[in-house]
Structures are given as C-alpha cells and as structure tokens.
Amino acid sequence: MGKIAIGDACLICPGVRISSAAEIVIADSCMMASNTFITDADWHGSYDRVRTLGCPEPVYIRENAWLGDGAIVCKGVTIGKNSIIGAGSVVVRDIPPNVIAAGNPARAVRELDPAEPMVTRASCFAETADMEGELDLMDRENLAGNSLLYWLKTVVAPGDKD
Length: 162
Prior knowledge:
Blueprint: E1 3-6, E2 11-12, E3 17-19, E4 23-26, E5 31-32, E6 37-39, E7 59-61, E8 66-67, E9 72-73, E10 78-79, E11 84-85, E12 90-91, E13 99-103, E14 106-111, H1 121-126, H2 128-142, H3 148-156
Parallel strand pairs: 1-4, 2-5, 3-6, 4-7, 5-8, 6-9, 7-10, 8-11, 9-12, 11-13
Antiparallel strand pairs: 13-14
C-alpha cells in the first residue's frame, strides 16, 4: 500500500518485516538483523477500529544504521546516520546520528566516537578487485582439505565425519 525504498548495500536478515501504509525510506548500507520490524502505521485507529491504517507517519532510517535482532521501529521515527539500535529495542522517538540506542522505549545510551573511521557495507563493494581477492582467499581457506583423492575416499570408504 505504502512506499518502501531500500538503498544500496543493505543487509536484510531472515524474518525482517517492513510494513508501509505511507513511506519507509532505508538509506544505503543499513543492516537489519533477524526479526526486525519496521512500520509506519498503527494499522487501526485507537478509537475507530474500523479505520484500517490509523494515522500513518513516514519512517526514515539514515545511512549505515544498524537495527539489532528483534528491534521494532514505529511510525514517525527517524534513525540517524551510523546509529545502532540494540537488540529487542522499541524505537518510538527519533534517534540522533552516531549513537547507540537501546531499551523500551529506545534512548541513546552511548555516543559513537566521531574520530573513529566508519567502514560501511558499501565500502566493501567499492573495490571489486580487492573483494574478488578476499573471496578467493576465503574459498581457498574453506576448501583447503578438499582434493580428488579425499573425495574418492569419502565415496569408497566414508568415515564417521564424512
């Protein structure tokens, strides 16, 4: 019904729900852990339960924000750039940039150090040659024990761990 916009290089884990009646905008490089729920509506009125949407208000999740496992982001909220929302938190008010917020309701519990360099998910994909090299290295490490001889052994005389 509503508009959902998701930026580049975002991570959306299994079980994430995004329900929009108005507008939800998720900027580049955001991470949403499992079972995160983002909504821009109540989905019913407080007194008029027939009115299906209530009063929707847009949600904005700025660049490089990270929503922890099971976090809930409610209508009308903006989560600032680089901010982290703790697992199980319920966000009902705006969260400023560069903070760690947690709780029900979520509130800033710590500021991130602005002098510390911020590495985003998008930066992982910026240099494709470097990324290909790292992926090749991971493949070599993960497949180090594999060989034709080992495979034949597992087919002909498999052991307990094969």
